[in-house]
Fold:
Amino acid sequence: MKIEKIELKRLHLPLKEAFEASIGQQTKRDFLLVGVHGEGETGYGESVAMPTPFYNEETTDTVQYMLEKFLIPMLFSQPIESPQDVSRLFSKVRRNQMAKAALEGAVWDLYARQKGIPLARALGGTRTEIAVGVSVGIEKTVEEVVRKVEGFVEEGYRKIKVKIKPGFDIALIEGLRKRFGDSLPLMADANSAYTLEQADLLKELDQYSLIMIEQPLAHDDIVDHARLQQQMRTPICLDESIHSVEDARHAIELGSCKIINIKVGRVGGLAEARKIHDLCQAHDVPVWCGGMFESGVGRAHNIAITSLPNFTIPGDTATSSRYWERDIVTPAVEFSKPGTLAVPEGPGIGYAIDWDVVSSLQVLEKSYSK
Ligand code: OSB
Ligand code: MG
Structure:
């Protein structure tokens, strides 16, 4: 693959409404759009790090720094045959998964475009459509969350995930079950808001037949999660704790979870995401694709990886209109039928960049040549 030029654009994209979780409130995305040019084509990726280090240790600034100082120069320093080479090349840089994933994802898109095939096919995906759910933030009252969920159920979302935190947990889940009954596919995400000492409280959730509880304990833990899983019927899903296929192997061996949330950014890119998918498939551990409020570019990457066969649980890849007044891609990401997104058939990510929107959001632009 010839890689001739790389462009970074920093964009501020306001969320339609603020989103609250136990790790804090978010009102906009501040992220980098990465363009990789070669042989007359351009591939796109985006960084999913937040502006603050409250989900993981990376931030938009650290991603920009790592790209400029290390990852872009490394990519220019070696011939690349395929996107897997990028993943191998970057493996000597410790961590900084979201910085690596932003650039690696753009190279995957470029690779698929150069071959004239959809990114989903380049990854080995087989689905033509994917089922999706939606992640719902914390509100002031249970009633407000119930009202939000009513709208999403009406739209056809196939899974409802609600954020919980101490003091906004059991009563919320009970309220949702009272309103929607036991058949609503429902799960809770704690973003590490509890400790093992609160196991008795978490075990109360067992009576509500949740599909899973996501990351109840510390962001860097797999030992206490294994202890908790032994005491709980509800499957534990790990998000923050999994950064690599090795982390996934350790968690599966220890019994720390029964389900894994794969976020392409959190694990350092599509090649690593696929390795985790394959390992989980071999161990009968279902996976689903998490979200980081991606713009349409990251959303398209999420759709592509979700086309792999072991993504059997609806992910958090909701439509563009759930987040943005105007997305940066065209067409916007919308349902092909309720709760379903079609896997694009065009080359690469299958969406075009809307440059008018990008230029209206852009706060910084940089370009690097070989
Ligand atoms: O824990 O899954 C999470 C958003 C930002 C950071 C972490 C998480 C989330 C979400 C929202 O749950 C997912 C989305 O709608 O993109
Ligand atoms: Mg999560």
